[in-house]
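Q: Got a minute? One more chain.
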Amino acid sequence: MKAEILKLLRENDGYVSGQRLCEEFGVSRTAVWKVINQLKEEGYHVEAVKNRGYRIVDIPDVMSEEELKSLLTGKTQWAGQEIYYYSDTDSTNIRAKELGEKGAPHGTLVVAGQQSKGRGRRGRGWESPPGSSIYMSILLRPGFLPARAPMLTLVMAYSTAEALRAETGAKVRIKWPNDIVLNGKKLVGILTEMSTEIDYINHVVIGVGVNVNMASFSEEIAKTATSLRIETGQIIKRSTLIVEIMKHFEKNYEMYLRTEDLSVIREDYNRLLVNCGKEVRILGSREPYEAVALGINDNGELLVRKQDGSEEAVYAGEVSVRGLYGYV
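A: Always. Here it is, folded:
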């Protein structure tokens, strides 16, 4: 009921009477009063005026299951329509995979206020301090073959970049295949894991970590990491960003299903690709070499032009790409 009351208050510019809330949700005035007090304790600025009712004056950066549900209801068809929120957990990817094994539906979203075992690509750690950033994972149950699943990482990267640009105005870019960068530093990390049979996907979990309101980083990563707060000077509402990412991802996922490749978003993805047209160093199982990044192909591989003029498609699972003079 709290999520429904919050949604109703949020969508009304004026006051909502206690009587209307009672009738709408079939509860007593005491029950409504308890919910209002809970909202106040969580940080919502709720004004109560006798004979007029309640209205929300201000919503700070609150993260909770009720907040997310109140925002996501009616905004997507399936992405995030079932939510699990943890104030503290080991990893949202771990939680989402467990839910996947238990039969949780397509689009289930797991969000945490803090993680103790956040991970990035290639097993790297991901700093996850409390109350400052987005740690979330979405569970998917696609019907296509396992070979097509890795491209979903790029779909999420593009969706997240779109959402951040739309919601914050920040001119974020994509560092192939799936890092989101701002002013040359990493802002978002994405990790995709899946459970498969030979020709069947049980489920896919895509984890997204967004540095939102962090004011500083450890010395170890301060040269390569940044946050929206550092770059914009503003405190950003994390729940609103999550909703925006879910909206864009659902739209782009549905487009991906039509072709099972990246042809629909390829042009726009390449427009946001920070490496595109630049010299990069390819690091992998072979000797490192330098090339010019040309953009992705329909399968999400990075096309590069080598120094001898030949072109090659580089697969993200095998190599890393670095700028010649820094992270990007």
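A: The chain is about 30% helix and 25% strand.
Q: Perfect, thanks.
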